[in-house]
Automatic annotation (TrEMBL):
Protein EC: 2.7.4.3
Swiss-Prot/TrEMBL keywords: Kinase, Nucleotide-binding, Transferase
The organism of origin for this protein: Ostreococcus lucimarinus (strain CCE9901)
PROSITE patterns: ADENYLATE_KINASE
Name of the protein in its database record: adenylate kinase
C-alpha cells in the first residue's frame, strides 16, 4: 500500500472528490454473465469505477475468505482439503461476508456466480433477507468462433484483473500493465482446447441462469462482438 505522504495533493483531492461523488450514486447490484473471452474483464473495471461498486469474482473471494479465516472461509478450506466441492451455501455465505466491506456500500458486480439456477435462487434468497435484490444482469454475447482468437491473445494483470489482448487491446508496453508497469500473465486455461470444454459447460449450465433472470425482466443483452467503445455505450444505456 502506498504511504499517504507519497501521494500527491492533486491525486489525494481527486480521490476525495471521487468518494464524495460516490455518495450520490444509486445502489446497484449487478451480475455479469458471458463465456470466456467475452470482454467482461475489460468492462468490469469501468463499470466498477463509474458506479462506485465493488467487484466480486468467485475465485478471488474464496481465496480471500480462506486467507482471512472467516467462518465460511474455514468451511471452504475444509471442503477443498477433503477433495469436495465448495457448496453453494458456503459460496453464498462468502458473498454475504464480502458485501459488508466498505467498498461495497454502493453495491457490487458479481462475476463468475451464479453459474446454475440453484445458485441464483440461493443468492436471491440471501439478498431478499436483506431487503434488496439483483438490479440487472448483463449478458455478454459473442459467437463461439470469435472467442478462440480473443482467448488465445489475452493477457491479464493479476492484481487488478485488467485485461489486454495482443491484437485488439495491446498494452502500451509489451508485457506490462499500463498503470503499474507490472508484468502481465497468461492464464493456463487460455487455449483453444480448454475453451471448447468451458464453452460447452457454459452453454449447458449458464443459459438456464439467463432464462431465470429474464423471467424477472432483469437481463440486458450486450452485443459484445463490437469495439470496446460500442460495448461501453450499451452498458451505459443499460445501467442508466
Amino acid at each position: 500500500m502506498t504511504a499517504l505522504e507519497e501521494i500527491s495533493t492533486d491525486e489525494l483531492m481527486r480521490e476525495i472528490q471521487r468518494r464524495l461523488e460516490c455518495q450520490n450514486k444509486p445502489d446497484k447490484r449487478l451480475i455479469l454473465i458471458g463465456p470466456p473471452g467475452c470482454g467482461k474483464g475489460t468492462q468490469s473495471p469501468k463499470i466498477k469505477s463509474d458506479h462506485c461498486l465493488c467487484h466480486l469474482a468467485t475465485g478471488d473471494m474464496l481465496r480471500a475468505a480462506v486467507a482471512a479465516k472467516t467462518p465460511n472461509g474455514v468451511k471452504a478450506k475444509q471442503a477443498m482439503e477433503s477433495g469436495a466441492l465448495v457448496s453453494d451455501d458456503i459460496v453464498v455465505g462468502i458473498i454475504e461476508e464480502a458485501v459488508k466491506a466498505p467498498e461495497c456500500r454502493n453495491g457490487f458486480i458479481l462475476d463468475g456466480f451464479p453459474r446454475t439456477v440453484p445458485q441464483a435462487v440461493k443468492l436471491d434468497e440471501m439478498l431478499s433477507a436483506k431487503g434488496v435484490s439483483i438490479d440487472a444482469v448483463l449478458n455478454f454475447e459473442v459467437p463461439d468462433e470469435v472467442l478462440v482468437e480473443r482467448v488465445e491473445g489475452r493477457w491479464i494483470h493479476p492484481a487488478s484483473g485488467r485485461s489486454y489482448h495482443t491484437k485488439f487491446a495491446p498494452p502500451k508496453v509489451e508485457g506490462k500493465d499500463d498503470f503499474t508497469g507490472e508484468p502481465l500473465i497468461k492464464r493456463k486455461d487460455d487455449n483453444a482446447e480448454t475453451l471448447k470444454s468451458r464453452l460447452q459447460a457454459f452453454h449447458t449450465q449458464t443459459q438456464p441462469v439467463i432464462d431465470y433472470y429474464a423471467i424477472a425482466k432483469k437481463v440486458t443483452e450486450i452485443h459484445a462482438n463490437k469495439p470496446a467503445s460500442d460495448v461501453e455505450a450499451q452498458i451505459a444505456a443499460a445501467l442508466k
